[in-house]
Amino acid sequence: MAQPPSRAEVEVVFLALAHETRRHIVALLSHLGGELPSGYLANRFKHSWPTTTRHLKVLEDAGLVVVRREGRSAMYRLRRERIERVVGGWLAHLAPVDPARTWTSSGPRTASALAERSPTSRGGRRAKPRTRSLAQQGTAPP
After folding, report:
1. Which of 8, 59, 97, 99 gives a 20 to 30 Å CA spacing to 33?
2. What is the C-alpha end-to-end distance of the chain, expressed in Å?
3. Domains and CATH numbers, the chain
């Protein structure tokens, strides 16, 4: 079984996926499969080419895409295994706990049951609440 992702990995990946354009790029790379040139990806958006390349760089730095450069062109490919490991690992923390592994309390389950177990209900004496502070009594704490 693969090692669970670290907190730093989860933060980097979710930060990269926080922007709508980067999620759209990930979806394009996922649905169209294989490698796609940066020019193709840039033409899919209304913003400028430098803006698209900055988004691609964020995805690359987060380890979500791999870039293969050939001269002046760059081909981008999605790293599905990284997304599955980090996002899937994070989602595993949200899975419901197996009832067999839950902690069962041996204490009272209701307020009335708790009251029955209190020292006053068994004839014990409860400590009298303090009405004056130490400053009011004229003594300072040590």
Report:
1. 8
2. 57
3. 7-92 (1.10.10.10)
